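Sequence of histidine kinase (Glaciecola petra).
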Amino acid sequence: MWRPRLCFYQRLSVSLVTVFFGVITLFAVASSYLQESVTREGEQRLHLDLAHHLVHDNPLLKTGVYDYDALKNLFHTLMLLGPSFEFYFVDTQGRILTKSAETAEVLRKQIDLKPVLELLEDSSSLPLYGTDPKSQNRDKIFSAAPVYNGDKLQGYLYVIIGGAQYDSIVDSLKKNKGIQQFAMVIVAGTLFLFFALMLLFRVFTLPLKRLSDDMDLFRNSGFNLASSGVSLLPWRDDSRNEVQRLGHSFNEMLKHIDLQWEQIKSTDAQRRTLLADLSHDLRTPLANLQGYVETLAIKGESLGAQERKTFIAISLKNLHNLKRLIDQIFELAYLESGHINLKKENFLLTELLHDIAAKFKIKATEKNISLTVQAEQINTYVSADIEKLERVLTNLLENAIRHTPKNGTIKINVSTVQDNIQISVVDSGVGIANEELAYIFNARYQASNTERDANSHVGLGLAISQKLVDVLGSSLTVESELGCGTTFSFSLSPVKN
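Predicted 3D structure, token representation.
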């Protein structure tokens, strides 16, 4: 089944206008009912004693009713004097015995005495409605008084207030041109208010529609801000208008999603490149290892002892390179996963630095490189994960030794910077070009002047070091000048006494 689709503005307009007209209608009905009730109560209170005075002041009623024709003439005369009244005399059962109206006009021969008795007993609760003899289903306000014949109740004088003639005059007044014009003014004013509300709703909901259109454009473009055609309207975040603040939040969200999307694409491209490079790096030592092992297996005893020893040594070297590469891949993947546990402890920093430097003394001596530890304070305690800190310094020192020529220097400096302990690995090596500094922490990136040696290096050391330093709550920075050496630095928090 087809149903018309209404936009938010249309649904809001229709809903509010419907509610408005409903409230107006309810108010008009309630107001009309209240006005009529108040009017009827006022008229009934004003003429409440009319029947009582007629009974006590008129000889035909004062001593009892004997002549119904004379009473009918009296009622007719009274009706001429008061056209808004109708007079009836009923017996104790409510049957109409005589009346002021013509017989053809009276549709009921009996009235309900319950309202009459209720009025005579208690007249405080008004308006009180009784039977209208000229209508089959309508009641009217009335005045009533008992009529006695001596001490015997003979019946009741029943006076309708606002009879048929009165109703006829009121109905004709309602059809008066002035009243019709007033009604037309009310209708015109209501229509004007309707269109004014529609216009206001349009103004209020237009920004929301624009925001919704922008959302649709962004979604239909595959969440690509550049090709979506979204206008990014200048929404204000300090406005008291909720739509303005929503629009500003939406713009910020679009920019954030677009930035994340670009980062995801960049990361994906880097991942593909990294996988391709690592596949190549894994294939090379694995192919070499396979070749030498197959040669050993095929030739077996035909190889000389020295040749076999050489093949085994080369195979072990490739195996070591392969294991080193796999370990670094797993380490980088572990760090990027974010599920890292720190085992912090307090220790003497200079003692750890001297121990690490001692491990590299032999390598440094082979290249006649001076490796020293220089600390402003030798009794400085820090709180960190020793294993991860040692891994960072090991990577940095391996890089420093590899890129520092013979007779060079490497220093591990410890200094106090803004209440933190700064550790710097300073070498006098080949340095890094300024345009390459921004990329050296990327996985698999190697500077153009990287020193080559007999071992295989896959360019993951600095990427791992940077992530480890991040885990330690610091950041790894680099300063370098081509041909003048490089300095890597990071900070740790000292243990306060």
